Amino acid sequence: MRLRPPSGAPGGRERGQATVELALVLPLLLVLVLLAVQVGLVVRDQVLLVHATREAARAAAVGGATEPVPAPGGLDPARLELDVGGDGRDVWAVGRYRTPVLVPLLSRLQGEVVLRSQLTMRREEE
Description:
With 126 residues, the chain is α+β, with helices and mostly antiparallel strands. 42% of the residues lie in helices and 23% in strands. It has two helices and three strands. The chain has helices at 17-63, 104-109, and strands at 80-86, 90-100, 112-122. The radius of gyration is 27 Å and the shape is rod-shaped.
């Protein structure tokens, strides 16, 4: 004689419910994790762009050169634009970087994100 488990008990009619719920929620969780990774990469590129802009302005303020400094590690020099200029007292540097979107689902919506940075620095007297 076999006893039937009461409804709602483990092993009853609800067997496999957790698997179905996981299968429904897993794609959403995966997209959210990939989105967080992409946001982290964009923030990293913004920090590197600010650093490159600061270095370019500093080089112009100290040495008077308007040639941009090399791109810091992690930034693709082909995607980086640095403009350096100034007047008698101040120098300025403007940076622009096109960071690629690496997440497959998001890259179809937007291929790249354009980041900008601007810095003005007083020219150092010698």
